Description:
It is a single chain. The protein is mostly helical. The chain folds into two domains: 12-89, no CATH class; 94-305, MetI-like fold (Orthogonal Bundle). It is built from 15 helices and no strands. It has helices spanning 12-35, 38-62, 66-71, 86-92, 100-131, 137-146, 153-165, 172-196, 200-208, 213-224, 226-242, 245-251, 259-269, 274-294, 296-305. Helix 6 packs across helix 8 (172-196), helix 8 runs antiparallel to helix 11 and helix 13 runs antiparallel to helix 14 (274-294).
Amino acid sequence: MSATLPQVDLTPEQRASLAKMSVAGRAAVNAKKKLTSPMASVSAVFLAVLWTLPTFGLLISSFRPEKAIKTTGWWTFFGDPHVTLENYKTVLHQTGGVSLGSAFVNSIVITVPSVLIPLCLASLAAYAFAWIDFRGKDFLFVLVFALQIVPLQVTLVPLLSLFVKVGLADQFWTVWLSHSTFALPLAIFILHNFMKEIPQELIEAARMDGAGHVKIFFKVMLPLLTPALAAFGIFQFLWVWNDLLIALTFAGGGKIQPITVTLANLSGTRDAAWHLLSAAAFISIIVPVAVFLSLQRYFVRGLLAGGLKG
């Protein structure tokens, strides 16, 4: 005895919605087949090798003796392998008035607060713009968004003059405040768009349970914001770590100069010391690569979160 399923009458809107879902499903399947095809895999591997080949050559050169670097290419290392640690020992200690070891520590001291400060302020501001009603909210949000088009270069001299007047010149505070100021508009915009994707029913359910804005932000929003915070945090970390313009303006002449300024000075005073430049350059990329690889999954989720609605 076989059971028959009851017939369900669908409205034209429901049938159209099912048709769109089937079309979208077929498109997703076709896209997945194209992305997982052997040709796509070979192309991805080729691009990955092509992208990492200069970094690999830099790593090899940093361990080669000075004479070998100046006379032969790094690919000859495999035929005549000679390894030395003198390049790293020289560049990490005082060499010609430049200490890369202290500059490395300065970069960490500069980068970590320059990432945490805008993330904290931007997440609070984004929550206010997304879920709190107050007068002039739309105008202020447009104003914050418009700040992204202000050229960074035109603000450096006024900021430097202001810091000198208030007695903050040649201090870590100047670099922290500068990076945080320039990062806030984009951070607020990204986090605001991410928060608007969160269903309103979730916020209303928390309010019915007696939660206020503070509890909603820390108990509901922050756990959901982890991908977006990680994505922007990676961008900000890489930007601050590799920055040279702001570092030269606010920390270029004192003892707080980061590794980018020290590396630029090293290349200017030792233009023929390729063995030192290769070691110094590789030291400067260790931390960004480690940060990106450790937070890669959050980075991808954060990039995709704003474009998908479930």
